[in-house]
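job 3f2a | input accepted
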Amino acid sequence: MPIVNFERYCEMLDKAHREAYAFPAINISNIDTLNAAIEGFVEAGSDGLIQVSTGGGAHASGNLKDMVLGAISLAEHAHRIAARYDVNIALHTDHCTTDKIDTFLKPLIAETSQRREQGKPNLFSSHMYDGSDLPLAENMANAVPLLELCRDNDIVLEVETGVVGGEEDGLNREGIDKEKLYTTPEDMVAVYEALSQVAGARFMLAATFGNVHGVYKPGNVVLTPEILRNGQEAVMAKHGAEARFWLVFHGGSGSSQEEIQETLEYGVVKMNVDTDTQYAFTRPVVDHVLTHYEGVLKIEGEVGNKKDYDPRAWLTRARGNMARRVVQACEDLKSAGKSLGR
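job 3f2a | predicted structure (342 res):
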């Protein structure tokens, strides 16, 4: 099935919103992690999102370190691979900060615009603008024109208020003022009022409730999911039930199953998964090297074993294990078995 179009994507998100489940959004940085994500969704019978960060795009372009070129290359591969399977896959870009709007986000939107003029489908289904380090008014002043661009090209925009702590993909917000880790109901109302002015647009909100990027042992991250409930209630009290946000959960590593599933009741339809799938991908590679040491390395003049050091040997294991972690994410978020299908 091709990468979903705007209408199908909104149908996916609306159904998840209505039935209280969410889609894993799997960060990828190369063809093997991309294939692993899709294969995991297929095995779980779940629709899902694949997302590329600025760092992931740069990595995919090799020594060119061109984040736009890398993101386009990965997206084009995803379009071809997803078309061979029967689950719905959406493509998303993750955490574009204000300083990269003109060098990452706008060029990718322009790429989609050019494709549309040629009668081709959108390159990406949605993009994220992360202006959470700015005062809210300034954050929204940047978000609104981006949302207009997205609306004009049938793209969903994700925005963030509050700050997700920790460090991920070069975005370091460790040691942040803890008050900034929690979005207020007033913030959520202000975001809705700013973005809803763009008629016909669809948007997601990554509201923060103590989220921290990275990996932490259970109990080390203090989440307050009721912040999402309170914010949604404030928005609906002022603007009606139709104003209830599609919410996004960032920084979920180390969260309990109970905390994750509680957020689904409050409107979370997308949960970013990166740290856990990175580990799942790398762990079998380490095991392969340690258990095939003499075959992988040419020790004391020996020739090694080509079957052991062929990258396909260990990449296949890595891909399979990451796919299994994607299945777990689908089960945790209750999307398993709920694909819209064809």
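job 3f2a | Residues 141 and 207 are 17 Å apart (CA to CA).
job 3f2a | closed
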